[in-house]
Amino acid sequence: MEPRTFSFLIDGEGRRFFGPGPLALLAGVRTTGSLSASAKAMGMSYTKAMRILHDAEHALGVPLTVRSIGGEKGGSSSLTPEGEDFLNRYDAWRQGVTAAANAGFSAAFAGIGGVPRLGCVVMANGEATRFGRQKLVEPLRGRAVVSHTLDALVSSRLDVVVSTRWERVRAVCEARHVACVEPAGALQSQTIWAGVEALGERAGYLFVQGDQPLLSSASVEALLDEFAAHPACVARLAWQGRAGSPVIFPGNLREALLGLEGDVGGGELLRRNPDLAATTRLVEARAAAELDDIDTPSDLERVTEELAALREATESGQDIWPVADAENGAQGGPGSSL
Question: What is the pTM of this model?
Fold first, then answer.
């Protein structure tokens, strides 16, 4: 499955007067120096070519071609300065529309009809110095913290890779058949590089903190929907207008992500580019707790209590957070591995 985009212009009365056909006709005039020859090459009658030209000139209010009489080969035609300018502008617009449509197509149809899924990098490479031990494998209601995070990422629209140097984290992920990649070092930029390089070129890259166990699949899907509608923009989960994690970066920022250096993440791109930051789309989470991460043992205790409350809400009919089997854990779905 692939898109085909055709860009047309209409006049003030709603009639189409310019599109791929007239573009080809005038491009042929530019090449051959003859409206008749251009029309013939397209299998078009000269009368139809004249009508197309007349309609376009009438709509624009300027002449697009000029005809020269006589000469060794008889009459000839060429584009006027206005015609050259219009063709250049239309072609630039057409290319922009096509590029935007292709990006939108790849984001909207990710994972179906042979369209590549969006990439998802789970950031699971930190030292956990404030916690005092590897927090991502700490038990949270019978399962590792990172396993709860992975519950929210089982989506047909995502290929997930966990970026981590820690063997115990890899063991949890591999038990769920979720792919892992090992960064070269501990820096945030290195964590990003490893994940993005493993995923290859994608229409978008979703970055998720591994210690975000209350994240819901519903909020992730809402974030993916927002990105599908605005594929040129960064999209972030938020609570009451306060931006947080996860965050999706458009695929055209891949090289910028790979160009990060030092202990910085994707937020550095937003700090460097105010225009990019200004167009960021915020998606409200289902609850404030979804944006919580775990830095200390007391954070884990608080999250444990919040998860218990959320499970009670789920059991009462509010199906917002995923409930997995405490012994075996939720297994990765079709979008859970590379």
Answer: 0.82
